[in-house]
Specification:
This protein has about 210 residues and is mainly α. It has eight helices and four strands, in the order H-E-E-E-E-H-H-H-H-H-H-H. The strands form two sheets. A two-stranded antiparallel sheet has the order 1-4. The chain has a two-stranded antiparallel sheet with strand order 2-3. A hairpin with a 5-residue loop joins strand 2 and strand 3. The relative contact order is 0.13.
Length: about 210
Amino acid sequence: MAAQVAAGLAATHQREVIHRDIKPANVVVSKHSTAKIADFGIARFADEAAGALTATGKTLGTADYLVPERALGRPAQPASDVCSLSCVLYELLTRQPPFRGATSLSVVQQHVNGIPAPPTRLRPDIPQQLSDYVLLVLAKDPAHRPTAEQASYWLAGSHRTPTRLTPRSRTITPAPPMAPAPGPRSPPAPSTTHPRPRGRRGLATQATL
């Protein structure tokens, strides 16, 4: 499901649209078990997303899935949607959001300064690579998060050991093609400068050649 939502975000971001409110209530599942993104009510084009605050000064978004840069009133960007998706995935895996608190403000403050518990600490049966990847996508710095396309690719089954990603990298570089195997080597031409040695040593040398 998370891979399908990430693929939907990738298509959205390709059109330079940022959803800005990814949460469980905005993910619907069709009768064919396909996850889809709903409610683009506060979505914005990328060049308009600088309006991070409402007219009343309240930050847009739901506290449990609010990403650090949004909590600080900074512009939303595609990496913000991906981070919110990771909050949703965290809750799917552990049955609780990454941060909990008595008030929405305390939750928002944890998104900015807190470190979430590894999902494996809450549910030891979660694969370690998946737990590590969820934390990677929750990186405080948007530049250190994968793109929606990369997240979709990884979550769909191409699991690799998480590494720190190159900021704003959008494509996965394929491995270079292997060089063709060398053909049979021709035997070296006999030397015309020095005579071939004779005797047992000469026979061994000829066998080697």
